[in-house]
UniProtKB/TrEMBL annotation:
Gene3D superfamilies: 2.60.120.200. Residues 40-214 form the Alginate lyase domain. Residues 1-25 form the signal peptide. Coiled coil: none annotated. The keyword Signal applies. Keywords: Signal. It comes from the Eukaryota. This is Alginate lyase 2 domain-containing protein.
Amino acid sequence: MKISHYYCITSLLLLILFCFSEGWCADPTYGFTAVPLTEWNFELQKPYDVPLEERYSYENGVRKLWVYADDKPHDPNSLTQPRTEVRIRGLDYSSGVWQFEGYAFVPNGTSGVTVSQIHGAAQDATTLILRIYNGDMRYYSADLIATGMYDRWFRLNVIHDVDGGKVTVFIDGVQKFQVKDKGPGDLYFKCGVYAAPRNISYYMESRWRDIKIYKK
Ligand SMILES: *[C@@H]1O[C@H](CO)[C@@H](O)[C@H](O)[C@H]1NC(C)=O
Ligand SMILES: *[C@@H]1O[C@H](CO)[C@@H](O)[C@H](O)[C@H]1NC(C)=O
């Protein structure tokens, strides 16, 4: 091999190394193991008085979930806001390191809505709420996580390190947000549409495909 080839290979390796060190090449699922899922793992919650097909469809691998601001809660005894959501069933966790992955699409006009959450915490009802407000993604109604979320597919990865007490959010493979969690509890992932307490659009929709759960 010529000297110039060594230079070439060395620069390539350095470039790859640099890419990883900068977090550009690192995949959030690296080092995790996918948990096998069946349709049973996808429990659906929707306004109690309407049939599922009026708020949910599943075609060509895409789950579409929608809800209206004046819909009923998921349970007649509940006072919560309307929702149509996938609740990951059978994979509740209370320790370890877990990850949710999904590709999501939120149409322009959908606002004031939680599109993904980690349900459960030591004290609160939730550990993480990811809401869309006017095309922005926020942590609850506060911290801005990402902008320009309408009318495009984006990849969402949420890592919950229960043992380390932290939650990390990635959009399109790039880390966008990290926050302390709220302690262990009966924890599980959800996605779909769940109306926020305020600033709600009348119609709310999100679409999801390739939902995966990983753990370490
Ligand atoms: C959303 O739709 C409104 C009304 O049609 C438009 O003014 C706005 O620019 C759109 N926003 C995005 C991010 O496409
Ligand atoms: C909710 O609406 C109020 C009043 O229109 C506004 O001041 C506030 O910024 C909105 N909050 C969010 C998170 O969009």
